[in-house]
Amino acid sequence: MPVLPRALEIQGEIAAIRRDIHAHPELAYEENRTSDIVAARLQEWGLEVTRGLGKTGLVGTLRKGNSVRSIGLRADMDALPMDETNDFAHRSQNAGRMHACGHDGHTAMLLGAAKVLSETRDFEGAVHFIFQPAEEGGGGARAMIEDGLFEKFPCDAVFAIHNKPGVPLGHIVTKPGPLLAAADRWDIRITGKGGHAAHPHATFDPMVAGASIVMSLQTIVSRNIDPIDSTVVTVGFFKAGSAYNVIPGDAHIGGTTRTTTPENRALVRRRIEEICEGAEKMYGVRIALEHKPGYPPTVNNAARARFAIDVAAGVCGEGNVRDNVRASMGAEDFSYMLEKVPGAMVWLGNGGDRDAVSLHNSRYDFNDMAIPFGVSFFVRTVERFLSEQPTA
Question: I want to staple 241 with a disulfide (CB 3.0 to 4.6 A). Which of 248, 268, 270, 315 is the partner?
């Protein structure tokens, strides 16, 4: 069951849609033009369209028969706030905005799947095509859920594709369990007593307290986390002082943590709090810690991940799939959907090797040759899931 012939036939049409979206990128919750394009195509192909979930998000629904079984397929639509440095014809026409993560490709592939399934309808049940805004930090998946996504469109499973530079074209990889990390941010603001650099004994130096905190933060992973688990604690900035001969009165440290399990996420947060409390006592300063939770870890349901990789093997060939890819310390708000509905995300090869242009790079572009593989994966996932109904 290789790549669908129909997916190859419509590749040019879908690639043209993808390039048009790429040339007109829109930021989180501003995806009005993109949503209009998606809605118009879905309606043209006979799908029911519901707009306004998560502000600019929408759902297209295709039904056949009387079965109550249902499946959700998700694509993200937003771009990044950055300038593009490519010079091809479909480069961004909107300054300070670029599809540098391939959401244009994700949206186009899901549209392609909707087109094929609207023609074949080789399934029994309901397919919900979820086009989501604001993945790049805006929490669009959560916004859609809060607007009643899964109450209005119940799903027995939900699946998503993300392109992956460096994975060969025509390959699909994933894994059961954590695929991407939780991404949290934190700010540590230290208030001491400044003074003359020649008289440090008359101050409570926030720089010394801050330096101690930075070094202590590096022990969280090395001395608290099981070496088998993936965890990152990164200090992104340390701001203090303005003169050679002045001990400043305050300092500001900020950074991010990435964890792949809820337990480690809570542990890291607790240890940061304890380190700050200890530094207050040791250096006589006052410390205000602000924790900013981001996306939770993206955790694939084990049965759904096995199902997805089996479908992928039928599309790409047994030798072109892997079910043991290493988790990424990046983050994804598809995680919110996976907390509500058992499902899985797969990574689709965008081509290249280790020197491939990475995501969030000003010279990145989605590989249109990947479109037939993504369309075929989505279509076969629907057909098989709604016929086989794998167990949870």
Answer: 248
- The strand pair at 158-164 and 298-300 is best described as unpaired
Residue 38, pLDDT score: 98
Average model confidence (pLDDT) for the chain? 97
Q: For residue range 60-119, list pLDDT tens digits in order.
A: 999 999 999 999 999 999 999 999 999 999 999 999 999 999 999 999 999 999 999 999
What residues make up the domain containing 279? 182-289
Strand-strand pairing, 286-292 and 158-164: unpaired
DSSP 326: P
Residues 324 and 282 in one domain: no
pLDDT digits (tens, 9 = 90+) for 263-307: 999 999 999 999 999 999 999 999 999 999 999 999 999 999 999
Last residue in a domain, options 225, 256, 289? 289
Question: What is the C-alpha separation between 137 and 53, in angstroms, rounded?
Answer: 17
The dihedral built from the CA positions of residue 163, 337, 2 and 42, taken in this order, carries a sign that is negative
What number of other Cβ atoms are within 10 A of residue 8's Cβ? 13
Positions of E strands within the chain? 48-53, 57-64, 70-76, 125-132, 158-164, 172-173, 177-180, 182-191, 195-196, 231-240, 246-247, 250-259, 286-292, 298-300, 321-322, 343-349
* The pTM of the whole model exceeds 0.90: yes
- 269, 289, 309 — which closes off a domain? 289
Note whether 234 and 379 are same-domain residues: no
Give the pair of three-digit tokens for residue 258: 């990435």
Clarify whether residues 337 and 257 are in a common domain. no
List Cβ neighbours of 43 (8 Å cut-off, separation of 6 or more): 49
CB 173 within 8 A of CB 313: no
Does pLDDT of 1 surpass 60? no
At 226, give phi and psi (nearest 5°): -55, 130
Q: How many other CB atoms sit within 10 Å of the CB of residue 242? A: 6
Question: Could you report the per-residue pLDDT of 48-69, keeping only the tens digit for each?
Answer: 999 999 999 999 999 999 999 9
